[in-house]
Structures are given as structure tokens and as C-alpha cells.
Write a structure and sequence with these properties.
A hairpin with a 2-residue loop joins strand 9 and strand 10. Helices cover about 35% and strands about 25% of the residues. The protein is an alpha/beta fold and about 250 residues long. The protein contains eight helices and eleven strands.
Amino acid sequence: MGSKSLPHPLRIAVLECDTGLPGALARYGRYGTISSAFLRAGAAACGLDGQADLDVTVWDVVHEIATYPRMEDVDAVFLTGKFNAFDDTPWVLRLVDYVKDVLAQRRVRLVGVCFGHQIIGRAMGAPVGRSEGGAWEVSVCDVQLTAEGTRVFGGRERLSLFQMHKDIVFEYPTGVEPLGSSESCLVQGMYVPNRIITVQGHPEFTEEILREILETRHSQGIFDDEIYEGAMGRVGRKHDGLVVAKRFIEFLID
């Protein structure tokens, strides 16, 4: 139990954009379940009751393209990871339109990770696509925080986060505060007070989830030996997923 409680449960709609690989699916559940557990851990780190103080619903926006939460029924929208935020497939276009609807009002807040971060950037008019040369950023990597990022994340100068992407938001949308960058990705996080917070990384992932992705993509030839061995050498490093989870919840209840 937490040491404090909210007057009303925080209603968070998780827009599930992928399911995950078999091992992670068996151990942790779908991405919606993983994201829910991540948010509840963040609530507990804030001294809240991760169960009673959060009302988390999961929406399969890939297969149920016509079914989205109504604005009046939620306080926040959380977008999970996936690939190809620049695609023009019907479900991606519908997701971008929904995010634009959220941006057009002032009450419901937006949180995004990886693909979700990129979709929010796209909805705000920023170009999204493959990084220079299609370079991958994978495993535990450091994000150098800006002055605003340092303030937002409690005085830290950097975050260590799980990464799994080669798509990026190329530039910060107008009106967005930059939170951080890395050598291969300028836009590692976006922030608008009381409106938006995102990170390019996967703070919701665990070492086991990353290991399975790395091993699968290496066996498929997506990652060559150099990328794979370097990534596996970092995958067990300490990461700041809980730091980000706590800050996401603080952002939502401020």
C-alpha cells in the first residue's frame, strides 16, 4: 500500500501498438500489460497505491482501429512502442489523428515511449523516419539530458535507458522543451508542462525482454555480430526505468 492516495483514481488509457515476442508474452504479457505494470510501479515509487490509485485500460489500436477511448473518460493517454511511426497504414494514420485530437484539447495529457514518442512528434508536425544511415541504437544506452531534462528528472545529468530503434524524430516540434539527446538521436525526449512527456527509450522494458529481442534479431540477421555482441555486453547494466516511471506519474498528477 502507498502512504498517500489520490482523491480519484488516475484514468490512463494505454494505446497498445504491439504485442511482443513469445518469451516476453509468456512471462510478462502483452505490451499493454507491461506498460500497466510500469505505470503502477511508478505510482508506488510516488508513495501511491499502484492498484487503487490508477485505473488503467488497454486499447488494441492495431486491430481495433475504430475503437478509441473517449476524452471525457480518461485523464491521460500512454502510447507504447512498435516500429515505423512514419508508415501510412490505416491504423497508424488513425492513431496520428487521435493524438492530434488529444493535442487539440487541454485536459488529457500525453505520454509516449519509443514508437509512441515518434507518433506524438509526427502528430505535432515533426519529420519522422530512419536515422542517418539507418543506424540502430540498442540495449542500455546513455541519454545526455538538457538543462530542462535535468530539472524534469530531479537533477540527473543523464539517464541510462533500454533502447531498441533506428527510427527517430528528426527535430523538436514547435513549443516543445528538449529533454535529452544521444550521439545517434537528437530528440530523446519531449516535454510540454501539463501536456506532454515522452522518451525515445523503453523505460518499461526489462533485461529479459531486451535479451529476447536481441537474440531474435541476431538469429534473423537483422543485427550483425558487432551490434549484437556490443548490445549484449550492455544489456545487464543498471538502467533508469523506474526513475522515468516515477516522473511520468508525477507529471500526470502535478
